Protein THEMIS2 isoform X1 (Ursus maritimus), 642 residues
Amino acid sequence: MEPVSLQDFVCALDLASLPRVLRVCSGVYFQGSIYEISGNECCLSTGDLIKVTQVRLQKVVCENPGTGQTMEITPSFCGHFSPLTGPQSYATLEELLSAATRRSKKLPIGFMSTHRITTEARVVPRDQPLLLEDVEAYHRTYRARCVLDTETRPFILHLPLSQKGPFWEWEPGAPRPLLQALQDPALSDRLFTCPTLPWRSLILRPQYELQAIMHLRRTIVKIPSTLEVDVEDVTASSQHIHFIQPLLLSEALARGGPFPLPTEILEVPEGPPVFLSPWIGSLQKGQKLCIHGLASPPWRVLVSTKGRKVPRHFLISGAYQGKLRRRPREFLTAYDLLGALRPGQPLRVVATKDCEGEGIDSPGFASLAVGDRLEVLRCGQAHGAKGQDIDVLVCQRLSDQAEEEEEEYAEIEDEDQILLPLYFSSSFVEEMSDNRRYNLEDLTAQFPLPCEVKVVAKDSSLPVDPLPSFPGLRLEDKITEPFLVVSLDSNPDMCFEIPPRWLDLTVAETEGQPGQPAGPLAVATVEELTEAFYYTLRQLPDFENQPPPPRPPKSQGLRGQKKQSGKDKSRQSSQVSGLQQAPLLPKPKMKTLPQIAKDSSNTYSKVSAHRKDPRHTKSVTKDPDDDEHDYEEIFERFQNTL
């Protein structure tokens, strides 16, 4: 085939013969863009091969051959077109008949008039198709016997050959829709007429968009047919050529198969590594892979080790078959206790650190000692030292006495509640007696995350399971993300899972059948993460927790105010020499809290104060304002005594 322009090739193309392979014989380059303009390919080099897979009509430019004016119509244009036999019109019917005789054209002849024709029998509208069937002699003159096709029946008209036009000759037959007029090869160079358009004759110039495949192009290339490039059809001699089309793992996942899919790596994404597994080093350009399909189940658990100076991080598949046992959780602040509180699930902890309430600006706070047992009830609000409301955690102090004593003091213990400000820093360990062995699916379904566990039985399907060697693991969160099961062509029996979201390899499909493993796929269910990728996962929306509330600024409180008052009075006293400051006095008590029922909900409630266990501390029921007055009277009596 000789080289032709791309426009001529597309206009003469039989769409049923697609796909066709073309070779570019003369390249083209548009200065506006190296690669594309408005999504279309605008740079083709000489020698490039193009595999045309689809042709789509974009628009049609209608041109008036007399004036050169143009107008555009869409492919959905509803008008009908009739082809004209020549580029000229005729002034009379006699000229039309003479031109047909010179071309040896036989009757009947189709024609139309650009003006209305009025006869005694009927008025013929302009541009109405007529068929000249014969020439008859009538009173020493000749007249044309014409047929007008109406909706009911044909109507016979007799027009003199001297009838003035102008007239246009057209091909007999029904007018054609736009697409049929363009697809008929015999009408490629003909003039058309359309009653819907303002011009009597026009030239149709279609503009197409070619969708093609090119070497190492990941997406379909779109080429306009008006691109000034010459091409040659080399389909017959290019049957052996395979067009390499890059494919991302995310695209293979989105299209859903077919699997297994043999591929070859073309490019590995740049950036820090994701996993520390041995197979990660094999993912290089040229490595052949087999994609087996979507991993099941789609969820995984992010895990960090406990008990080591430098923690290690893992991603455990939901298919992990090891056995786990729960470990008590550790909490460093009251805010951590609030985060672990769940409705309907009691949370009991043991204090592992002594803590005095001297520096806490919460009047209802009670000191904690090592071994104190608490049950976390709910979150509430209390009045601070400066009268402002602070967020607190309402807890129930539990007794270690026998059941008989617990029944005796049941009513008293209901009132033995303490308030912990959410910014309070201490150390707590969860109290539990659960020796059951769980699999990963049951554990995550029954208990909220984060959760601390110990692997007591390894996954027997793994050659090496690293998790049982750690004294404890922290299950941080469940991640639902699609993974692809992949194996190396050199070792089809060992499979691993790749997340296209974070490791989106560029591959190309290869020919041939992939190697099939001898038995069921052995998939690695535990993958160690790099520290950089671990923190990438921590930035996911599921990990965006609200930070702890800021601690209120420290203030002197009531004790500091009384010290200052004692200093002023001691300076005024002449009976006590050398007395520089007031003696330490008993800390005033606040009004007793009303009884608070146990509730594990997160609903805030406001409490004004708290009292300690009546078995250890005598309660004071006076108002705090009265405490200040009592303090002054005691101090005055103390001065008089001296």
